[in-house]
Amino acid sequence: EEQLVESGGGLVQPGGSLRLSCAASGFTFSNYNMNWVRQAPGKGLEWVSYISTSSTTKIYADSAKGRFTISRDNAKNSLHLQMNSLRAEDTAVYYCARRESSGYLGVWGQGTLVIVSS
Amino acid sequence: EIVLTQSPATLSVSPGEGATLSCRASQSMNNYLAWYQQKPGQAPRLLIYDAFNRATGTPARFSGSGSGTDFTLTVSSLEPEDFAVYYCQQRSTWPLTFGQGTRLDFK
Asked: How far apart are alpha carbons A43 and B98 in whole angstroms?
């Protein structure tokens, strides 16, 4: 079964840092471009970041630029999101999502909750 | 950035009835539009891509149409499991953007 499992969420103070991880299984992770998408409580979906298969291309939403860093380890089938200078508005469930050949997000993890609060 | 506006925000329908959801883009984007379904406590699920192609496992009662700036998701006869929130998403230009969602509620 193709699966993505996020981890690393939790409660962090404003200005703090957190590193999210996404473990992939059931498919050849290195063949797929990957994304992070977040959803604030009770709100809609917001795309956060994209990384190409070989990590040569990384793209960020304006809300993440300069604070978040996406990375991947194809040898370990893992995707990461390093989040620094966290703000209350970063509070959300963070999903990793696989980009299909169609260009859309076809496989999603179950999400990990990040709460930024003092 | 392409802004996607979905309407209505909430649609109340009865099982067995049809439903039509709209997504309007702030600029033309060919057919680079997808629809996702999200149920409470679950991740989104890809239903339709490139405006009208059903993703694997999407029931035939779901259909997508439109081009340019105006797109529609139609559910021909609602099943109980279809009551959820639906989002449109474009991949025409970066950043990827989503509509704000339409909630399909039981009438």
From this structure: 12
Alpha carbons B40 and A74: distance in angstroms, whole number: 32
Amino acid at A56: T
CA-CA-CA-CA torsion for A47, A106, B23, A58, nearest 10 degrees?
30
Residue with token string 């703000």: A87
CB contacts of B41 in chain A (<8 Å) are none
pLDDT digits (tens, 9 = 90+) for A14-66: 999 999 999 999 999 999 999 999 999 999 999 999 999 999 999 999 999 99
Nearest to B55 among A46, A62, A106 (CB): A106
Core vs surface per residue A27-61: b (16+ CB within 10 A) or e: eebeebbbbbbbbeeeeebbbbbbbebeeeeebbb
